[in-house]
Amino acid sequence: MSCGAPELQAPTMMSHDGKGHCFFARQPSTQEETDEAILGLWASCCGAVRYRGQNREVLVRLAEQGLGDACDYRLEDEPKPVRRSCVSFEFGDPEARSSSSAASNEIMEYFARAQTQRMSGRVLEFRCSAIASSFRYEWGDNSQPSRYAVTFSLEFQNGRDWLLRILRNEVASTAFAISIYRAMEHDVRFRQVQWFSEEERQRGRAGRPCPY
Fold it and tell me: Is residue 174 within 8 Å of 61, Cβ to Cβ?
Protein backbone atom coordinates (compact mmCIF):
# COMPACT_ATOMS: atom_id res chain seq x y z
CA MET A 1 0.00 0.00 0.00
CA SER A 2 1.45 3.38 -1.02
CA CYS A 3 -0.72 6.21 0.31
CA GLY A 4 2.00 8.88 0.39
CA ALA A 5 0.47 10.51 3.49
CA PRO A 6 3.50 10.20 5.83
CA GLU A 7 5.84 11.63 3.16
CA LEU A 8 3.46 14.56 2.74
CA GLN A 9 3.68 15.39 6.45
CA ALA A 10 7.46 14.86 6.78
CA PRO A 11 8.85 15.36 3.26
CA THR A 12 12.44 16.08 4.33
CA MET A 13 12.79 12.87 6.37
CA MET A 14 10.58 10.20 4.83
CA SER A 15 10.89 8.18 1.65
CA HIS A 16 9.54 4.91 0.23
CA ASP A 17 11.07 1.82 -1.36
CA GLY A 18 10.37 0.21 -4.73
CA LYS A 19 7.28 -1.52 -3.35
CA GLY A 20 5.79 1.72 -2.02
CA HIS A 21 6.57 1.05 1.65
CA CYS A 22 7.40 4.26 3.54
CA PHE A 23 10.27 4.64 5.98
CA PHE A 24 12.31 7.32 7.74
CA ALA A 25 15.34 8.05 5.56
CA ARG A 26 16.88 10.03 8.42
CA GLN A 27 16.13 11.03 12.00
CA PRO A 28 14.94 14.49 13.09
CA SER A 29 17.62 16.83 14.38
CA THR A 30 15.56 19.93 15.33
CA GLN A 31 12.28 20.60 17.15
CA GLU A 32 10.61 21.45 13.84
CA GLU A 33 11.72 18.12 12.35
CA THR A 34 10.53 16.27 15.46
CA ASP A 35 7.11 17.88 14.95
CA GLU A 36 7.16 16.73 11.31
CA ALA A 37 8.18 13.20 12.31
CA ILE A 38 5.27 12.98 14.77
CA LEU A 39 2.91 14.08 12.01
CA GLY A 40 4.42 11.48 9.68
CA LEU A 41 3.68 8.76 12.23
CA TRP A 42 0.19 10.17 12.83
CA ALA A 43 -0.56 10.06 9.09
CA SER A 44 0.79 6.56 8.47
CA CYS A 45 -1.63 3.71 7.87
CA CYS A 46 -1.45 -0.02 8.61
CA GLY A 47 1.27 0.45 11.23
CA ALA A 48 3.74 1.32 8.49
CA VAL A 49 6.13 3.26 10.76
CA ARG A 50 6.89 3.12 14.48
CA TYR A 51 8.79 5.04 17.15
CA ARG A 52 11.65 3.04 18.71
CA GLY A 53 13.06 5.81 20.94
CA GLN A 54 12.58 6.53 24.63
CA ASN A 55 12.34 10.33 24.63
CA ARG A 56 9.64 11.07 27.21
CA GLU A 57 8.30 14.20 25.51
CA VAL A 58 7.88 12.36 22.22
CA LEU A 59 6.27 9.36 23.93
CA VAL A 60 3.80 11.63 25.74
CA ARG A 61 2.89 13.48 22.54
CA LEU A 62 2.38 10.24 20.62
CA ALA A 63 0.25 8.75 23.39
CA GLU A 64 -1.87 11.90 23.48
CA GLN A 65 -2.50 11.41 19.75
CA GLY A 66 -3.64 7.83 20.41
CA LEU A 67 -0.41 6.42 18.99
CA GLY A 68 0.88 4.58 22.04
CA ASP A 69 0.61 1.26 20.18
CA ALA A 70 3.03 2.63 17.56
CA CYS A 71 5.77 2.95 20.20
CA ASP A 72 8.17 0.12 21.06
CA TYR A 73 8.70 1.60 24.53
CA ARG A 74 5.65 2.44 26.67
CA LEU A 75 5.55 4.80 29.64
CA GLU A 76 4.22 3.46 32.93
CA ASP A 77 2.29 6.70 33.34
CA GLU A 78 1.27 6.91 29.68
CA PRO A 79 -1.37 9.62 29.23
CA LYS A 80 -4.71 8.98 27.62
CA PRO A 81 -5.45 10.37 24.14
CA VAL A 82 -6.16 14.11 24.14
CA ARG A 83 -8.00 15.91 21.35
CA ARG A 84 -6.85 19.55 21.28
CA SER A 85 -9.45 21.23 19.11
CA CYS A 86 -9.61 24.65 20.83
CA VAL A 87 -7.10 27.39 20.13
CA SER A 88 -6.71 30.82 21.72
CA PHE A 89 -4.72 33.56 20.02
CA GLU A 90 -4.16 37.25 19.52
CA PHE A 91 -4.89 38.63 16.07
CA GLY A 92 -3.98 41.75 14.16
CA ASP A 93 -1.37 44.47 14.10
CA PRO A 94 -0.79 45.70 17.71
CA GLU A 95 -0.24 49.21 16.37
CA ALA A 96 -3.38 49.36 14.24
CA ARG A 97 -6.97 49.88 15.29
CA SER A 98 -9.57 47.40 14.06
CA SER A 99 -13.11 46.61 15.11
CA SER A 100 -13.85 43.13 16.44
CA SER A 101 -16.40 42.70 13.65
CA ALA A 102 -13.83 43.40 10.93
CA ALA A 103 -11.23 41.22 12.64
CA SER A 104 -13.72 38.37 13.02
CA ASN A 105 -14.49 38.47 9.31
CA GLU A 106 -10.78 38.51 8.40
CA ILE A 107 -10.04 35.54 10.65
CA MET A 108 -12.89 33.37 9.44
CA GLU A 109 -12.36 34.17 5.76
CA TYR A 110 -8.70 33.22 6.19
CA PHE A 111 -9.54 29.92 7.91
CA ALA A 112 -12.25 29.08 5.36
CA ARG A 113 -9.87 29.78 2.49
CA ALA A 114 -7.20 27.60 4.12
CA GLN A 115 -9.60 24.64 4.12
CA THR A 116 -10.78 24.99 0.53
CA GLN A 117 -7.20 25.33 -0.70
CA ARG A 118 -6.19 22.03 0.93
CA MET A 119 -9.31 19.94 0.31
CA SER A 120 -12.08 19.64 -2.24
CA GLY A 121 -14.88 20.48 0.18
CA ARG A 122 -17.08 23.53 0.51
CA VAL A 123 -17.82 26.20 3.10
CA LEU A 124 -21.45 26.54 4.19
CA GLU A 125 -23.43 28.67 6.64
CA PHE A 126 -20.76 31.37 6.95
CA ARG A 127 -21.87 33.74 9.72
CA CYS A 128 -19.92 36.66 11.13
CA SER A 129 -20.50 39.14 13.97
CA ALA A 130 -18.43 41.16 16.41
CA ILE A 131 -18.94 38.61 19.21
CA ALA A 132 -19.23 35.16 17.62
CA SER A 133 -18.75 33.75 14.12
CA SER A 134 -18.91 30.32 12.54
CA PHE A 135 -18.93 28.29 9.35
CA ARG A 136 -19.47 24.65 8.44
CA TYR A 137 -17.04 22.81 6.21
CA GLU A 138 -18.46 19.83 4.32
CA TRP A 139 -16.69 17.21 2.25
CA GLY A 140 -17.44 13.86 0.61
CA ASP A 141 -19.10 12.75 -2.63
CA ASN A 142 -22.41 11.38 -3.84
CA SER A 143 -21.25 7.76 -3.43
CA GLN A 144 -21.50 8.18 0.34
CA PRO A 145 -24.80 8.04 2.25
CA SER A 146 -24.08 11.44 3.78
CA ARG A 147 -21.37 14.05 3.57
CA TYR A 148 -18.89 14.63 6.36
CA ALA A 149 -18.88 17.99 8.12
CA VAL A 150 -17.10 19.97 10.82
CA THR A 151 -17.98 23.32 12.37
CA PHE A 152 -15.53 26.14 13.13
CA SER A 153 -16.76 28.47 15.89
CA LEU A 154 -14.96 31.73 16.74
CA GLU A 155 -15.55 33.74 19.92
CA PHE A 156 -14.22 37.19 20.80
CA GLN A 157 -12.66 37.19 24.26
CA ASN A 158 -11.31 40.68 24.96
CA GLY A 159 -8.87 43.19 23.49
CA ARG A 160 -7.24 41.26 20.64
CA ASP A 161 -7.87 37.79 22.13
CA TRP A 162 -9.91 35.15 20.30
CA LEU A 163 -10.94 31.52 20.80
CA LEU A 164 -11.55 29.10 17.91
CA ARG A 165 -13.25 25.76 18.52
CA ILE A 166 -13.49 22.87 16.04
CA LEU A 167 -16.77 21.06 16.66
CA ARG A 168 -19.12 18.27 15.63
CA ASN A 169 -16.63 15.76 14.24
CA GLU A 170 -14.33 14.23 16.85
CA VAL A 171 -12.69 11.84 14.38
CA ALA A 172 -11.62 14.59 11.96
CA SER A 173 -10.95 17.37 14.49
CA THR A 174 -7.22 16.58 14.81
CA ALA A 175 -6.67 16.82 11.05
CA PHE A 176 -8.47 20.18 10.93
CA ALA A 177 -6.59 21.41 14.01
CA ILE A 178 -3.33 20.65 12.19
CA SER A 179 -4.62 22.51 9.13
CA ILE A 180 -5.49 25.58 11.23
CA TYR A 181 -2.16 25.38 13.05
CA ARG A 182 -0.27 25.46 9.76
CA ALA A 183 -2.39 28.33 8.45
CA MET A 184 -1.56 30.34 11.58
CA GLU A 185 2.14 29.58 11.21
CA HIS A 186 2.14 31.28 7.82
CA ASP A 187 0.49 34.53 8.94
CA VAL A 188 2.20 36.95 11.33
CA ARG A 189 -1.15 38.40 12.41
CA PHE A 190 -1.63 35.39 14.69
CA ARG A 191 0.30 35.60 17.96
CA GLN A 192 0.35 33.93 21.39
CA VAL A 193 -1.19 30.76 19.97
CA GLN A 194 -2.20 28.12 22.56
CA TRP A 195 -4.05 24.84 21.93
CA PHE A 196 -6.34 23.12 24.45
CA SER A 197 -8.74 20.25 24.73
CA GLU A 198 -12.23 21.21 25.90
CA GLU A 199 -11.42 19.77 29.33
CA GLU A 200 -8.11 21.63 29.60
CA ARG A 201 -9.79 24.90 28.64
CA GLN A 202 -12.65 24.48 31.11
CA ARG A 203 -10.25 23.63 33.93
CA GLY A 204 -7.97 26.58 33.17
CA ARG A 205 -4.96 24.42 32.38
CA ALA A 206 -1.98 25.67 30.39
CA GLY A 207 -2.20 25.28 26.62
CA ARG A 208 0.30 23.89 24.13
CA PRO A 209 1.95 25.72 21.21
CA CYS A 210 0.64 23.12 18.74
CA PRO A 211 -2.30 20.67 18.77
CA TYR A 212 -0.23 17.46 18.52
Answer: no
